[in-house]
Write a structure and sequence with these properties.
The structure holds 2 protein chains of 2 kinds.
Chain A lengths: L24 E2 L6 H4 L4 E2 L3 E6 L5 H14 L4 E5 L4 H8 L8 H4 L3 E5 H8 L10 H18 L3 E5 L1 H7 L3 H18 L2 E7 L15 H4 L2 E10 L2 E11 L9 E6 L2 E6 L10 E2 L1
Parallel strand pairs in A: 3-7, 3-8, 4-5, 4-6, 6-7
Antiparallel strand pairs in A: 1-2, 8-9, 8-12, 9-10, 10-11
Helix pairs in contact in A: 6-8
Chain B lengths: L2 H10 L4 E6 L4 H14 L3 E6 L4 H10 L7 E5 L2 H4 L8 E3 L6 H12 L7 E6 L1 H5 L4 H18 L2 E7 L5 H10 L2 E3 L7
Parallel strand pairs in B: 1-6, 1-7, 2-3, 2-5, 3-4, 5-6
Helix pairs in contact in B: 1-2, 7-8
Classes of the chains: A alpha/beta, B alpha/beta.
């Protein structure tokens, strides 16, 4: 064979088509969910946790925070719709909750009243002016910075969006929120309420939030022989090679558990997400 | 050879999955005898019941003087028929259509088993077929079989001889390491 014409050595085919270096992940420690996410949510991602009423959004978000706190992280929950005392009462009904996480400052629960106090205003409701929006973003930033929080949940982003004047403001608000949270390395879940619409799949009320968020985790219900089953599906997650299969979610004594949903067990035309 | 000896041989052979085909006339006696024998051999167990409430199985096992210290239940029927649901060793499933819950709860109960080795008794495939369509059932059997095989858990799927349609039997034959069709039931 003439010099320089040796056949090229075949390069090994990489089984992972994305290749590259995987991002560091924030484990959810929820049975089955980290497998769906290929290790967890990429650190610093701001994801939408979308779903209808009763689909398990708050429970999942809380478990994400509690599991992080149990593993030495500082977690924050900001409730926009409910007083923190009521939220705490509900939390105590879960076997996986531990009061000491709150007393030791690993799990911090805020409501709008507390935020208003920090802002030095009596009430922050009604439609937000650009100044209010800045103040609210500043308050969220201060909380995360002060506590060195690595996990945050805002419940719900929909309630915040209702106060913003237009879709442009919503986009701007979520973009800037995500930007500073990412800088802080704070992994965030924004709870988004959706409504049932058989014709189109929606991930938010305003249709803007999902475009700006790094990830979309969709919670829903499917009907099987008249029974309602809670489901979860990861629609998008920047920086993670994740499952897109629909999974069943169940609340067990050790917390939520996730297993793949049977393919034939979903009734056509009766899917509520 | 009796059912019990065939099950014992199947475990010794390193099987993962066995279908136990039992005649309808002494189904109850035979299945409980198999479980009692396995528990007596220092195995822990998970009994998945779709055909009778777990409280009923416990009562009958106690009558056999079987040790129930390391036996747990996944009960798919009590909540549907309004039975007792207070037993701490039992996970009660909302509805027999919630097939994925079985897999999930077997996994959770396996953590509570003290014995080094354990089995899962699935009583019965026919019980499930009352509530689920054949294609759903076939998919579930396929997932169950492969999940248990991956976990290396010895699993017995019970089926009533006279009530198993050829289509379902064919699935069970394909999935199982062995088909046990005992003779006398003693031993």
């Amino acid at each position: 064979m003439a010099r320089g014409t040796e056949p090229m050595k075949p390069t090994a085919v990489k089984l992972d088509p994305r290749g590259g270096r995987p991002r560091e992940k924030s484990k959810t420690y929820i049975e089955g969910m980290d497998r769906m996410l290929n290790g967890g949510i990429p650190i610093g991602n701001t994801s939408l946790l979308a779903g209808t009423v009763g689909s398990g959004k708050t429970t999942l978000a809380m478990e994400f925070l509690i599991n992080g706190a149990k593993n030495g992280e500082t977690a924050c929950y900001i409730s926009v719709t409910e007083p923190s005392s009521k939220m705490l009462e509900n939390l105590r009904t879960y076997g996986f909750f531990d009061d000491s996480l709150v007393t030791e400052g690993k799990l911090n629960i805020f409501d709008l009243g507390i935020i208003n106090d920090r802002l030095g205003v009596e009430r922050l409701d009604g439609s937000y002016s650009p100044k209010d929006m800045e103040a609210l973003l500043g308050a969220f930033e201060d909380i995360v910075d002060e506590l060195q929080a690595t996990r945050l949940v805002i419940d719900s982003i929909t309630a915040v969006c209702y106060q913003l004047p237009d879709r442009g403001s919503i986009r701007n608000f979520i973009f800037r929120l995500g930007q500073f949270l990412s800088t802080f390395g704070c992994t965030t879940l924004l709870i988004s309420e959706t409504v049932v619409d058989a014709a189109t799949q929606t991930y938010s009320i305003f249709g803007v939030e999902e475009a700006v968020a790094d990830g979309v985790i969709l919670m829903g219900n499917v009907q099987r022989q008249g029974d309602l089953l809670r489901t979860m599906q990861i629609v998008k997650m920047r920086g993670a090679k994740h499952s897109r299969a629909r999974h069943l979610v169940e609340l067990t004594p050790i917390g939520l558990s996730v297993v793949p949903l049977l393919k034939w067990g979903q009734e056509t035309g009766a899917v509520y997400s | 050879m009796s059912y019990q000896s065939e099950v014992r041989d199947s475990i010794k052979a390193g099987d993962s999955l066995a279908t136990v085909v039992v005649p309808a006339n002494n189904y109850r006696e035979l299945t409980l005898d198999i479980v009692a024998k396995l528990l007596g051999s220092k195995l822990g167990g998970i009994y998945v019941t779709t055909s009778r409430p777990s409280t009923h199985v416990v009562k009958e096992m106690k009558a056999r003087k079987a040790s129930l210290n390391d036996l747990y239940f996944v009960d798919m029927i009590s909540l549907t028929v309004g039975g007792e649901t207070g037993d701490p060793r039992t996970v009660f499933i909302d509805s027999p259509t919630m097939l994925e819950s079985v897999l999930l709860n077997i996994g959770l109960l396996e953590r509570r088993i003290k014995a080094k080795r354990h089995f899962v008794m699935f009583d019965s495939v026919n019980g499930l077929s009352i509530y689920s369509e054949m294609r759903v059932l076939k998919e579930f059997m396929n997932v169950l079989a492969n999940t248990m095989r991956l976990r290396r858990t010895y699993t017995m799927m019970l089926t009533v001889d006279e009530q198993t349609p050829p289509e379902l039997e064919a699935v069970l034959v394909t999935l199982s390491d062995c088909m046990i069709r005992g003779g006398t039931g003693d031993g």
